[in-house]
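pinned: reference chain
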Amino acid sequence: MGKLAILKEFWSFLKVRKKWWLAPMLIVLMLLGLLIVVTEKSAVAPFIYTLF
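pinned: its structure tokens
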């Protein structure tokens, strides 16, 4: 429940403070994290890590 509460609080922060430019950065960071987790134990991992 803690992770969901953080996302809810962040969403509330974006709505109140009108900091919409933070949303794309957060989405990109989450996608990069997801990419690293998904490719961690696959044969594609060495090719993904060479991109960074």
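why pinned: The chain has a mean pLDDT of 79. Residues 39 and 47 are 10 Å apart (CA to CA).
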